[in-house]
Amino acid sequence: MKQQRQRSGGQGQLQTLTKAVTHIRLIEVNPGKLAALDALAPVYLSLCQQYVTLFCTQAQPDKFHPPVFVTPLSERWHRVAIQQATGIAQSWRTNRTQAYQDYLDDLLEYHEQQAEGTLDAQTEEPTWKEWDVPTLRQTCIQANANVVVLEPSQDSTFDYWLKISTLELRRVLLVPVKLADYHRQTVKGKTVNTSVTLNKRDTGWWLTLSYNQVVTVQTAPDAPVVGIDVGIAHFVTTSTGKHYGTFHGKLRERQKRDREKRRRKAKLRTCLERKGVKKLPSTTSRSGQRLIRHVRQEINRAVNQCFTEHEGAQIAYEQLSVATMKHKARAMNAYMRASNLAHIPEQIAWNAAKRGVQATRVKSAYSSQACQRCHYTDRANRPDQQTFCCVVCGFQTHADLNAAVNIARRAGDSALQLCKDRKAVKSLLMQRHEAWRKQHGWP
Ligand SMILES: [Zn+2]
Predict the structure, then answer these.
(1) pLDDT value of position 117
(2) pTM of the entire predicted model
(3) CA of residue 420 to ligand 1 center, whole Å
């Protein structure tokens, strides 16, 4: 079951979680029953693609954009395609902007290090490669009630009827939907949303339903803020000085074994290829997939425990940028890193939403380099990965703990949250450091 969340408000406010019920197979009562849907799919997909390209390159994404392409689809289907394309283009644009900002931050960091003379000999100047417009490869139709109607079945043989408008005028396809027992348990007593998603795979057509769940925010306005730092040595370090989960130890051992296995497989492939063998063993690793799943389970467990042990608090966590993740994951193997680290903040957000806990995402820039006592911000404050030691005031603590405390404070720090980029964050922190010096008569 896939789950989504929406932004949270303050205490007593309601937040809506949209939960998805996936993997419902569309039954083909008799052969060719879904032929009308098969015929519609490529026409829909190519229209949707045209709008995706338009919204990514020439026009702003807009679900009310007037129709501009010619299609045999009905006006209603046309509108659905525009809406779906709007969503795709919007997230593409957001991700691209974020990645571009990360690139600029990377570039700034590179030049900073160059000026300081602390640049690694192997580090290359970051470059920007323009993104391609997304290509819709898989058939996915996000339909609403204007084109696909979900109706509870009166007959006990099926749970719902799906009424799908087709390419032919006034011809409606009627498809019975039968839920598995566990799906039936999940949606029992809930109102299923009228929007549905249809996916076509090699194995046939699949339906995704969704329903909303309302959670009340429980956190008191004056609840203490717990900051969470995300990392490798510890998945999660809190400003209260606790650690949860780690990539080291067993997970790293498993990862090493998996990498060795893939290396041996690659060698075998080259060897067989040279001997002219046509059918080669696959390069994808099933144990690799299992490892990724295992890491996610460990992350979920760690985050869950962290929330359980900090009941009544509100949470502040980092908005991880690609640059920060790269920095944090330097020691990790490429295919393990970014996706897994990114899973941690997602899991924090999901846990907060589910439990009705107030959680704030804060900027991560310099959270690991800034001194929590005097605000002095410098790479030199980090003699090694584990240690924070301020070169001005001498404050010393575990590096992750210092970051977690900084993150906790940023939750209520609107001046810092308003900073446009890394440069602005650094100059604000250094201003505060100067103020601290004056206040304490520091030489
Ligand atoms: Zn200091």
Answers:
(1) 83
(2) 0.72
(3) 24
